[in-house]
Amino acid sequence: MKEQPSYTEAFEELQEIVSEIEQGDISVDELSDKVKRAAFLIKTCKNKLTSTEGDVMAILRELETGEGTGEKQD
Amino acid sequence: MPEKLNDRTIFTLSEVAASIRKTLADRYTSTFWVKAEMNKLNLYPQSGHCYPDLVEKTDGKIVAELRSTIWKEDFQRINASFMNVLHEPLKSGISILLCARISFSPLHGLSLAIIDIDPSYSLGELEREKQQTLEMLRKEGLFLSNKSLVPAVIIKRIAVISVQTSKGFSDFRKVIDGNGWGYRFFYMLFPSLLQGEHAAEAMIAQLKRIEKVRHHFDAVAIIRGGGGDVGLSCYNDYNLAREIAMFPLPVITGIGHSTNETVAEMISFKNAITPTELADYLIQKFHNFSVPVQRACDVIINRFAARMKDEKLRMLNFARYFKSVTLANLAAGRGNLQQEFRVLAQQTVRLFQVSRANHSLILSELRKNAMSEISAGNRQISQAGFSFKKDVLSLISHAAWRVDGNLSQLEKAARRSLSADQLRLEEAVHGLRQQTTRFIAEENHTLNMIEKNVDLMNPVNLLNRGYSITLAGGRVVRDISGAREGAELKTLVSDGEIISIVKNTHKTEQP
Considering the entire predicted model, what is its pTM? Predict the structure, then answer.
């Protein structure tokens, strides 16, 4: 549970768990863990929607120095 | 007038210029229409006059070049008609159809004095340019480049190309910042001209800046609005369109106009048309992500609750079933136990009855014996009584006989005799009782002895004690004569029989 999934991963994993739960082929023992995991994923996803990302100062610094790596981050 | 010097006629420069002017004026008496490319408008804001450079190109090479003038009043009229028809002011770099006359000034030389420019010619020319831009992009395979980018699941970080004071940018911010779902966006303004002559270059420059820091962004939004429909031909600019098409991030346009779609809008990742719709589009992307997440949340909660309820019910049913089965088993066990108990009780009772019967048999036997003894005693007693009575009577009669006799003597004698008899009687009764008890005890002893003897004689007990009985041919073997060599012997022991063959026999030496 320590890994921080990207929201795409979190979203896909969440959908997987939901479909598993919907199909009802999870044992009660597993269910508890799955629900815990899903709660974590939901929180991750919702955080992505409501958290602030982007650092104007960093962008300006990179624009000035021309040190933009040009690498895409998720 | 020209001077004459050694056969030569010499003109002054002004005379030549005047001559040229006169010739031109005579030759070009009217105005005429010319098509040309206006390389530069050269508007002098102070005077309001323009001095456009006109060129003609063949295969990109200039094959003709002429200066021209548009006087302030003409320029204002022409510009107004351009704005009306093209939604563009007169600007450099377009093809025009102009109405002019030849003008020659001794000071400024030859030029075309432009009286009018036909805006509809330029309109077609602009459209042609637009088509050319599209065709080139298609040819280069760039038309779908930006559209085929895979955008981030949620477009959260946006580089905005706009103007701080733009009404469109303000509309955009209003929607984005005021969204009621708590969605947080990050946007950063890269200010640029958004219309007119230098807009394309300015936007390209900002796109290049954004590209440098593109890892900070999910998309670029070009936002314009509130500026009317003027000066939008920059969005058909090939260089700008190419820059957008090849941009590594999705470019979303919200240029806000009511004219035909521009090339930049066509090739962008998404044309949201207006800044507000652009903002709505971004929020919709959030919804697309958020709604399934919320649904997932609901599904999980519902399913989990339902599942838990089911399991609880199952457990409850199982517990009930378990209880009922256990109770049934218990009841059955208790029934069996009671049955066993009853059988046991019945058997015990029967055993008691049998032994009681035996006892009462013995008792009644004993009683019979006792009774016969007692009745014999009684008989003796009554006989004694009878003889006593007879004696008494004889005595009485004897006494009566001697009434006058010594009554007191008689009485004394009678009393003595009575008490003696009484004593004798008591002794007899006592003796009888003792005899009876002894008799019963002896009988009992005898019975026990008999039982013991019988028990001792039971061959089973003998066998139990380790003795065995050997049979040969069904007859008991008592000595070695009963067991010849080779005969089959059957030896009975406590829990079965042993079959054996006689090997040999020998007589025991008697001591």
Answer: 0.58
